[in-house]
Amino acid sequence: MTTDRRDHLRTLLRQHQPMDDLERAHRDAVLDLLDVPGDPFSRDHFAPGHVTASAFVLSPDGASLLLILHGKLHRWLQPGGHVDATDVDVLAAARREVHEEVGLLDLPLSPLTAGLIDVDVHVIPARKADPDHRHFDVRFLFQARDWQFNAGSDAHAGRWVPLAEVGLLESDASVLRAVAKLQRLQQA
């Protein structure tokens, strides 16, 4: 299964158009990770890290994003997390994470993107038995069919946030980069 996952992700990454040099470096780092020994999708792959999958969920009217108040980080972020052994690929992992964290099932990909909307690599500090490592996060854009959701799992809360107001929340630069890209796609 790992080979199929690697091939699927390589295809997505090669089709992805990075927004800037930073995201291009992130994309290239994920491509490099796919060539290292071991299973880069396993949460126990710490050198240099492992692939994670996230989901930006656009509201039915396209004006807001569904963000969660992350339980451990206490920031407003997109749903996402580790790729499980049962996930066929990173898209399945992103869909599973959305279901676990906000209760949404069978979300369609947004017509604004053919695949990934963003790629981000970030450091995860040592915690419990896990050493410092990196998350190589691949991010999809989905569009909700309705406004209903239920925060659960790692989410303390969830809310629809108008795109123009995401920058007012305690979030992070990678979320703001994805929002900027999303706004450009909507204007095109």
Question: Summed up, what is this model?
Answer:
The protein is an alpha+beta fold. The protein contains 4 helices and 7 strands, in the order ααββββαβββα.
Question: How would you explain this protein's 3D organization?
Answer:
The protein has 188 residues and is α+β, with helices and mostly antiparallel strands. It has one domain (2-187): Alpha-Beta Complex (Nucleoside Triphosphate Pyrophosphohydrolase). The protein contains 4 helices and 7 strands, in the order ααββββαβββα. It has helices at 2-15, 21-33, 90-102, 173-187, and strands at residues 49-58, 64-70, 76-77, 80-82, 116-124, 133-143, 155-162. Strands 1, 2, 3, 4, 5, 6 and 7 form a 7-stranded mixed sheet that branches. The longest helix is centred in the C-terminal third of the chain and has 15 residues, at 173-187. The termini are far apart.
Helix content: 25-40%
Categorize the overall geometry. globular
CATH C-level category = Alpha Beta
Helix and strand sequence: HHEEEEHEEEH
As a percent range, the share of strand residues is 25-35%
Figure out the total of helices. Answer: 4
List the topology elements.
Blueprint: H1 2-15, H2 21-33, E1 49-58, E2 64-70, E3 76-77, E4 80-82, H3 90-102, E5 116-124, E6 133-143, E7 155-162, H4 173-187
Parallel strand pairs: 1-6
Antiparallel strand pairs: 1-2, 1-4, 2-3, 2-7, 5-6
Task: Note the main attributes of this structure.
single chain, 188 residues, alpha+beta, Nucleoside Triphosphate Pyrophosphohydrolase, 7-stranded mixed sheet, 27% strand
